[in-house]
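<context>
A single protein, sequence plus fold
<entry> Chain with its tokenised backbone below
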Amino acid sequence: PKFSLPLKVSGTPFQLAVWKAIAKVPFGKTVSYGEIAKAIGRPQASRAVGAAVGGNPTPLLVGCHRVLGSNGSLTGYSGGQGIKTKKLLLDHEGIEYE
């Protein structure tokens, strides 16, 4: 499902770029931290992307549960009950993970 919802979130320019890139990842698809880093023109910033993902103030609207480790593994999730919630959201979207 695709929907449009106006959001006004505060963050650094780097965080906003990360969240905007994550928001473009479609339902049922995933991306790695490194892929997000490359997408925003900062290919060496995978760890910083991870920090920005962790600071996402709207985790369900900006689907940071779709961001996985480079090997497809689950990594931290700041929403709900952490990894348990991330698994639930990925399962709901039919996404396979390690």
User: Anything to note?
Assistant: The first helix runs from residue 13 to 23. Helices lie at 13-23, 33-39, 46-54, 83-92.
